[in-house]
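sorry for the late reply, my laptop died twice this morning and i had to redo everyting from scratch. anyway the thing you sent over, i finally got around to it. pasting the sequence first so we're on the same page, its 85 residues, then the predicted structure underneath. double check i copied it right bc i was rushing
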Amino acid sequence: MPVPWEALIPFGLVTVMFGVSGTLLNVSTRAQNLGKPIRHNIDNWDEMMMRRDEQLTGHKRGQRDDPVPPAGFETSSVWQTEKTT
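ok and here's the structure:
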C-alpha cells in the first residue's frame, strides 16, 4: 500500500504546532511562578502560606531567607484583633 506523501506535510505541521503550543504554555506558567513548577492539591495551609509569602515578597511564590519583615507588614494582616472605630 503506497504512502500518501502529501498527507505528511499537514501531519507534520499539526504535530509541530502541538509541541510548540505545549512548550509555550509550560514556559508561560513557569514564568508566572518565578521559574517554579505549578502547584497541585493546594490545601488551606498552602493558601495561607502563599498569602503570607505575597505579603512578604510581593509575589505568591516568592520566599525570603531573612527573618526581618518589610515595613508595614505588621499592619497588613487580614485578621482584625480590635475595632478601630
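The radius of gyration is 23 Å.
thats about all i looked at so far, will dig more tmrw
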